[in-house]
Amino acid sequence: MLETTKTTIKRITETEGVKYEIYIPIPDTTPILIYLDETSFLSLMETLREAFENVGKKVNVNE
């Protein structure tokens, strides 16, 4: 397991395709380790981008 205090994202290329490993350390508890295929990872990044673009803006969730 990784020994770091920062979140890391690692791109892994395998014969089945590309996947991403996301490691989130949490002090004094078990860290989070997530594996996503490329499509899911890109969807997550798009959603995060949209969320940060809307920080401080009022967003209508019913749109």
Automatic annotation (TrEMBL):
It comes from the Bacteria. This is Uncharacterized protein. It comes from Leptospira weilii serovar Topaz str. LT2116.
